[in-house]
Design brief:
The complex is a heterodimer of chains A (about 140) and B (about 260).
Chain A: E1 26-34, H1 41-47, H2 53-62, H3 97-108, E2 109-117, E3 124-128, E4 131-132
Chain B: H1 9-30, H2 36-43, E1 50-54, E2 69-74, H3 77-83, E3 90-93, E4 108-112, H4 121-134, E5 148-154, E6 172-179, H5 185-194, E7 212-219, H6 225-232, E8 235-243, E9 246-253
Helix pairs in contact in B: 1-3
The chains are: A alpha+beta (about 140), B alpha/beta (about 260).
The complex binds zinc ion.
Chain lengths: ~140, ~260
């Protein structure tokens, strides 16, 4: 499960969703795995406004990953400066180091095994073979 | 075909979820071509849109648009493991009735061939509510600017299909899924010859691969029924239609 997923996940229990402490879910006993994928700069630029930056910083710090900068990068920060287009020529934008770092942490860093805990009710969801399981036991449905 | 007696969650566990878990890899091999209306819906989304594929099966719709981000979910772990391969998306195991997404957070959702597996009218409404709850509400200044979901269900009216159901037929049905045993032609021939000799007493006959039939529960939607459920769930039907034995609707939240 790539870390970007956690930006769009909360507790599956209905009564938790209205509580701010149910987001984000907290990884516990996580075994991380890097699964390399091609960097997609337009995708990163487009997903940027959707990121809950403070919450992502919490998650990366809980996982013991390198600290994310205090403020979210801008779209411009993701593009390598320099490449000047000659007249009438389109130069393809290149990802900056910031973009590469973001790609690494959001799309390539995955939770292979572990648990995701709700900060509101304490329920833990298992992650096995990279797949988080949100099915609830009968008494919680 | 046996008529089903719908009973709710436990019934669906036995007659839907357990079946898909068992037929996952075989089912996946037959589900690869996206339907055009669904493909169009996904391709017209703005780049960077975020959405859910509720009941994603093998994740065939995750391959349509890599410029959006989809969190795909299914009850079947075996199907989710197959869906997982599609970048840049994510796949999780979850139940439509208890989806783990923040409320009102998504730009879009699709739920294709899913809510026809739900066995009571109350639960069908609850399922559509759960989908609507994912969507961003429209902004006050711009009606129609909210998130949208595309829902597909099997139609009762499909007299030209292989199944041949039509208006007036029973709507709750059990539909067989036949998993053909792997047959290696040469091996089968040889076996055929050998089997002319009767097995000796006390000896097991040579093992033959057997076809296996699984029965899945379906509720077939009659004309207008999907829109009625959407209305009851508090949704607005933006567009709806009939497409190859299915009823479909694009829905949004009421303001
Ligand atoms: Zn919770």
């Amino acid at each position: 499960m790539k870390l970007l997923t956690l930006n769009f996940l909360t507790c599956a229990i209905k009564t938790c969703k209205t509580s701010p402490s149910s987001f984000p879910l907290h990884p516990r006993d996580a075994e991380l795995e890097i699964l390399e994928t091609d960097i997609n700069l337009p995708f990163l630029k487009n997903i940027l406004p959707r990121l809950m930056w403070d919450e992502l910083r919490t998650i990366t710090s809980e996982l013991g990953l390198p600290e994310l900068p205090p403020a979210a990068p801008t779209r411009e920060d993701l593009v390598e400066p320099g490449a000047q287009a000659a007249e009438g020529e389109e130069v393809e934008e290149q990802p900056s180091q910031t973009a590469k770092d973001l790609h690494r942490v959001l799309l390539e860093t995955t939770v292979k095994e572990g648990k995701l805990a709700c900060g509101n009710c304490g329920h833990e969801y298992k992650v096995m073979e990279g797949v988080p399981n949100f099915l609830l036991p009968g008494h919680l449905v | 075909m046996a008529d089903a007696e719908p009973q709710g969650a436990a019934y669906e566990e036995e007659h839907v979820h357990t079946v898909y878990e068992q037929i996952a890899s075989h089912f996946s091999a037959t589900r690869y071509k996206p339907w055009p209306i669904i493909e169009k819906f996904l391709k017209e989304l703005p780049d960077g849109a975020v959405g859910a594929d509720v009941g994603c099966g093998n994740g065939k719709y995750l391959a349509v648009n890599p410029r959006v981000f989809m969190v795909a979910s299914d009850r079947s772990t075996n199907l989710v493991k197959i869906a997982k391969q599609h970048q840049p998306h994510a796949s999780i195991v979850a139940d439509i009735m208890n989806l783990p997404h923040p409320r009102h957070s998504l730009d879009f959702a699709i739920s294709i061939a899913v809510i026809h597996h739900i066995s009571t009218p109350e639960r069908r409404i609850e399922a559509v509510k759960a989908i609507l709850e994912l969507l961003r509400p429209p902004s006050a200044s711009e009606p129609g600017s909210g998130g949208r979901a595309l829902i597909y269900v099997w139609a009762l009216e499909q007299k030209d299909s292989r199944r041949g159901w039509d208006e007036g037929n029973e709507q709750d049905v059990m539909v067989p899924w036949v998993m053909r045993a792997k047959k290696e032609k040469e091996a089968k021939k040889k076996k055929g010859q050998e089997s002319q000799e009767a097995p000796k007493e006390g000896e097991q006959p040579p093992e033959q691969p057997q076809d296996k039939t699984f029965l899945r529960y379906y509720h077939l939607y009659r004309k207008g029924e999907l829109e009625e459920i959407i209305e009851e769930a508090g949704g607005d039907t933006v567009e709806a239609g009939y497409d190859k034995d299915n009823w479909w609707a694009i829905v949004q939240r009421k303001s």
